[in-house]
Amino acid sequence: MKDKPIRxxxxxxxxGVASRRASEELIxxxxxxxxxxxxxxxxxxxxxxxxxVKVDGMNIKPESxxxxxxxxKPVGIVTSAKDEKGRTVVTDLIEEVEERIYPVGRLxxxxxxxxxxxxxxxxxxxxxxxxxxxxxxxxxxxxxxxNKAELERLRNGIKLEGRMTAPAKxxxxxxxxxxxILDIQIHEGRNRxxxxxxxxxxxxxxxxxxxxxGEIELGGLESGNWRYLNxxxxxxxxxxx
Length: 241
Ligand code: URA
Hints:
This protein is of the alpha+beta class. It has helices at about 10-15, 20-30, 120-130, 150-155, 195-200, 230-240; strands at about 5, 30-35, 35-40, 45, 55, 60, 70-75, 100-105, 110-120, 135-145, 160, 165, 170-175, 180-185, 205-215, 215, 225-230.
């Protein structure tokens, strides 16, 4: 490992700075230097243990202790490791964890539920890559009751920003007059995807909660609480790698 060159954004993810994608943004923003020189272009490789990498002026090095945490995010908390506007972020709720962890994917501030956090950059990359087909499950309260044709549209794919969504698993759990509760599973993570899908069939989302991420389930974890993944969940995580 020591002499093998690796991509800068991968090294940053291994060091617990951010996911690979978010690390690319930091590079573009000019926040990363290698051996004293600011790097803004993609594709740079570095040699761990030899090249000196700094982010925001701070030296970084790969974390050896991998940690995996799930949080039941309350509404109003930002899914990020840092917020430029000073709002409360998910990592503020997990201060007891010493390693620098960051969220895998994103939940909107007004969405609640399961957020997975880790310093395992490889895993974060794989879990959010659509080709891995890791389903995320949401409970959505929507306006009205979608009819059969509308449910089929959700299942088969809907054009959002010129591109079809991948097939989704959708069930109506309950209808109570004005609103319905839907169980929706998707394996992509496009921006505000569930809300946009439901809006497109004219049944806007009033409330959204994520209850599972692959085989990892929120269960009875209370809003605002977090826990480390258990052994069974860790086995599942490793099986994806
Ligand atoms: N889909 C959304 O619309 N919002 C989320 O937070 C997650 C999925």
